[in-house]
Amino acid sequence: MAKPEKLIENGIRLDGRKPDELRHIKIKVGVLNRADGSCYFEFGGNKVIAAVYGPREVHPRHMQKSTSAVVRYRYNMASFSVEERKRPGPDRRSIEVSKVSRESLEPVIFQEYFPRSAIDIFVEVLQADAGTRTAGINAASIALADAGIPMKSLVSACAAGKIDDTVVLDLNKDEDNYGQADMPIAMTPEGNITLLQMDGHLTREEFGEAFELAKNGCKAIYELQRAALMEKYASQTEGDVVE
Questions:
Q1: In DSSP terms, which residues pair with 178 in a beta bridge?
Q2: Which domain holds residue 230?
Q3: Among the entry's GO cellular component annotations, what is one (predicted)?
Q4: Which residue among 49, 84, 218, 233 has the highest number of C-beta atoms inside a 10 angstrom radius?
Q5: Contacts of 189-192 spanning 24+ positions with Cβ under 8 A
Q6: Would you tell me the crossing angle of helices 132-146 and 204-242 to the nearest 10 degrees?
Q7: What total number of domains does the chain contain?
Q8: Distance CA 141, CA 127 (A)
Q9: How does pLDDT run across 34-52, given as a tens digit for each residue?
Q10: What is the pLDDT of residue 74?
């Protein structure tokens, strides 16, 4: 696709959003029966599934930690998730995204409760549209809660960036491809930042503006994550009462 002449005009982006507006989000909790916890997460054109297994025995055993659980995070983009078919299997980018995503969730997990155990998180991108790492972190956080893993809080993730010299929230694919900067963050509801990366160039003032936008985006996503979990457990409780 050719580069658009303008990514934002008269304060409105190509997809009709204002600079501080998130894309549409859809959340479904508990979508996989065989996982201990799972979540389907749509974030704009991104469609992501997260599954959590554990705590369970660590294999191979030499990877065990005697005082805490091992958290393992595997991010994978399905070969059909992008327009140009992707080669199956891990690549350099998926390994990097797996590492930073795991590190964004580890601070909130009570790993010391499960020595010599593993908590495995699998994130599969079914359809990609910029921001898959933040969508994956949001889905994984919900799946961990759905699995009953003791956590200090949920983690919410969102990106801000710069297009046509304008700071905006939650870049879509064209904005990510042809914009000037992209800054994903992840944070707890208390405001503790567990992930901050940046690609591109922002001035000090633009960084501050983008950071505030991304934080507000994370707060809005947290409310949706919380509501999705409450909806699932409210329906379960109603089912128990009916029985």
A1: none
A2: 14-242
A3: cytoplasmic exosome (RNase complex)
A4: 218
A5: 189/153, 189/154, 189/156, 189/219, 189/222, 190/153, 191/215, 192/107
A6: 30
A7: 1
A8: 19
A9: 999 999 999 999 999 999 9
A10: 97
